[in-house]
Structure prediction request, 211 residues.
Amino acid sequence: TFAAFDFIMSLDAHWFSTIFCVYYFAAGLVGFFSFLAISLIYLRSKGLLQEPVTVEHLHDVGKLLFAFNCFWAYIAISQYLLIWYSNIPEETVFFLHRQSHGWGTISLILVIGHFAIPFVFFMSRWMKRNPKTLFFWAAYLLVMNWIDIFWLVMPNANLEGVSFSMILVDVCCTIGVGGIYIAGLLKFAGQTSVMPVRDPRLEESLKFHNI
Prediction:
């Protein structure tokens, strides 16, 4: 909530939305479960966590990813309809900036690419139980999540439209910061157990089976 206010909403001091923090929360969970699915599948491919993390667990992660992506879309359309219906200039300016000067294309990509296309494929039980397809769609949604954050921030910095140099700089920054984070994560994971070995519910979790 505070990150949504401090990092993004404050970029436009006159704009406000009481549902924006929920939108940011939903987007964060989509990014989290996407990264979790990618990490688990990658570790299993390297011979790690093959016994504790089964197809049943991957199926559950896929269902959570599907659920929160739908929740993200629900909050997004709710925010849009509330602002459109009230038609207050201080609120409509947010979407006005994101529907002009090339930003409208990004908005359309989010509607179709972030929700409509994944919705069709995530309906499949087989897709969520197949590590290869789940890995692909988790990586796909992680990219869509990045585009969503880009769409939230950059129109306030450049109202003239999207440029290749702008995207290139942001992609490089994301790779740099993400690389530092992953390096730190791997170093920390190598010094401790990645499983909660003292959790009293661990045995029950290991035997988990979807119905």
